[in-house]
Amino acid sequence: MGKIKKVVKLTLGTLVVAGIIGACTNDAEPTKETAAPKVEQKQEQKKEKTPSKISQENFEKIVQGDALTGEGGMSKDEVIAMLGKPGSSSVTKTTIGDKETTMEFTAWTSFRNGTLTVTFTDGRVSAKSFTK
Fold first, then answer.
1. Domain ranges for the chain
2. How far apart (Å, rounded) are the C-alpha atoms in residues 121 and 125?
3. pLDDT by residue (tens digit) across 50-65?
4. What's the pTM value of the predicted model, to 2 decimals?
5. Strands 88-96 and 114-121
6. Which DSSP string corresponds to 74-97?
7. Which DSSP category does 107 fall into?
């Protein structure tokens, strides 16, 4: 019976020592479980550093003018200063009454935030829309 107690005590003592040594060393490669939070944290930091300019907030800042003439609307340069260069643009010339008018249809797209479209009539915002 004495031998069994000694073996049990020796085994338990060895396990305790091994556990303490294992806890104190950090030589193991990180597992997916331990690496994942670091990756997520880096992605969150990236989002904070480079917020998308395509947003409901910026859409609401764009001043829309008269639907036919664009009068009273923001200029094209002001919108580009706020959002950057559009992803796509199409220009057409038309005659309204006896006046030739230039209409430009532009779109900014963010796969994360949606699409913001602006129509410029003679260089001024005459229509806008935002879809998520």
1. 56-131
2. 6
3. 568 999 999 999 999 9
4. 0.61
5. unpaired
6. PBHHHHHHHH-S-SEEEEEEEEET
7. E
